[in-house]
Amino acid sequence: xxxxSARPRENESTAEHKPIGGERVDRPGRTLSQRPLHFxxxxxxxxxxxxxxxxQSLNNAIREALPHLADVARQNPDAALLVRALAFSTxxxxxxxxxxxxxxxxxxxxxxxGFTDLGEALTELARQLxxxxxxxxxxxxxxxxxxxxxxxxxxxxxxxxxLAEPWGMRAxxxxxxxxxxxxxxxxxxxxxxxxxxPVTANNPEQxxxxxxxxxxxxxxxxxxxxxxxxxxxxxPRLDVxxxxxxxxx
Length: 249
Hints:
This protein is α/β, with parallel strands linked by helices. The chain has helices spanning 54-75, 118-128, 155-164, 166-170, 184-191, 204-222, 228-231; strands at 23-27, 30-33, 35-44, 79-89, 91-101, 142-147, 172-178, 199-201.
């Protein structure tokens, strides 16, 4: 857990903004620490993700999304945007284990194999959203789930564990389906908001746009008083139609 000191500095004469994860001077003589905004990628790394270049397309898409997330962080100097990534296949593993400032994150490649134990992954995520290690003064977490298939374990048990945590219930949850074989009902249950639906990527170009869009919307909505429905819209504009002849997933 990252702790940020909120003690006032003495003899501070000018206001300044510190980098993400640091402190912001609100006015001379008074320092306010940034509130953590925890952003989680929850990523399907099952064997089916190895087909048709899905996993490498996803690696590339997340790398392209990170600068946009960094822009969001710079636009909100009161928030410290911290990224983690939880991969699931046969069991789960932390791909990015420590809450990392988005502008310091270098994305390592994911590899795909095994089953689709989404329920176990959500149970682990729930443990991380407990207080502690989560901070009581944080912004609501932002969670983006990416999957191309159907859970092979008890997904509903994982959702119960997630929603039993106050931060799990309050989190801004969004989902990206890769290809047409994804269980959209599962993704909709994960989102938990009838006004927000999963978005589907059918080729690498769409995947890059949708990862960027969902990541940006989720992170902004977590630190904003309005919902993503009212402020940011529900449907991203894509240059490649979903029924394009170039579909590869």
